[in-house]
């Protein structure tokens, strides 16, 4: 079994033959089963038709015998029926169900079958005949049973020669008796066995013919394929598939020709591939050399990248320091403005103290009051120095700060310079909360964020100085004298962001350079007035150090710079 299974898997011819055999067996079995069934039904119908004709003939012939209840006449009437070998019993009854004749015929050595012929069973048959007014039959395992009514007359206009099958009883016909015969099934069974044997014989013959045809078809198909397969296996030696005369003008010949054409194409393609392989080898060698150079470069790339990053960070620190130094002159000027009034006050107090002493009006209370006023002026001057020193100290760690307060501290540093140039700086301490699809709503006057405080102050001072320069530039060409410069600082909170917006009514930013305002060393001022690193440093501090965002845009009467930082809801108490 295993060898057959292996052969079935490996051989196409075996698979085709097995499948063809299965199909032929199935087809023959189906056809002959259908044939046997139809023939048996036809045989049974013939026997029933024969029995029906016999019982109707008996009913027609025994009218006089039934009417006269003469057994002699009835014997003559049933003589034609009893000649049939398969009829073994005949009985005739009058209209009241009285048995007139009962006779077994053609029994021979056969055993008389037992059947129910009591009065009740016979009366049931009579009722069926009376209801239908026609003959009918019953079938048992061993015989067929036929019943028919005996009419007083058969109203046949054509005479007695007309077939009984055209007779139809009407209300004028009277049933005077009943005819009954029983027929053996032996003949039916014998005929059925003969039919089965003949059918099986024909089936076997057709099956053998089908198997032979299948074998010839399989051999016709597979032998050329096997020969072609052997030629294909030898193709590598000869470079061509030989075609025999048996293949001329058939599919195998066309297949062989196709293989030959394919072989030629494969040969040409192989030559092309060899040339391509040679070219690829040269390219691979070049790539290997390039990769070696790249690998060598990668060995030192990390060090070079780290070096460049460190240089960039140092450069940013230098730029931040330069930015602070560039602002130092302005800071010193601002310190001078902060100190001018306290110094004047100190000078006035000292002169007043001297005059009081000269006029001998100096007393203890007046002396201490003068000292107190002088100390207040000195404390104010000391605080001013501390504020400027804090500004120039580098931040080490971020702090949670109120953005509004830090902005106010930055503005206080540059306020003297703004006053000197007649520029007013308006700080709107109200913080607005901006939600999607809603109008801004006032929340409170505090806005917290994690920042490097002094670096953020430096950004605010850079933006205020930039706004101041823009206002002064516009005032130079304005017809309005004096030109009232205005800087507005607003605060908002939206989507977890703390927003600071610094707007001015200066000359604005030209559209052709708006995209360059944050580039290093880019400035529209004279070299003596600016270095071009202020806005660049503001962008570096906000985006790199504080993880925020800064951008510029023009407004209807000037420009505005917007800072966005990550907001903290409440300050953490430490």
Could you please say which CATH topology of the domain at 2-154 and 170-192 applies here? Beta-Lactamase
Please, what is the average pLDDT? Answer: 77
The number of E-state strands comes to 13
**What's the order of the H and E elements?**
HHHHHEEHEEEHHHHEHEEEHEEHEE
Our count of helices gives 13
> Helix content range of the residues, please?
55-70%
Low-pLDDT runs:
156-167
Sketch the major β-sheet: 8 strands, mixed
Could you say which overall geometry the principal axes of the C-alpha atoms support?
Answer: elongated
* The CATH H-level homologous superfamily of the domain at 2-154 and 170-192: PAS domain
Q: Which second-level CATH architecture of the domain at 2-154 and 170-192 applies?
A: 2-Layer Sandwich
**Strand coverage percent:** 15-25%
CATH level-1 class of the domain at 2-154 and 170-192? Alpha Beta
Task: Give a nutshell description of this structure.
With 574 residues, the chain is α+β, with helices and mostly antiparallel strands.
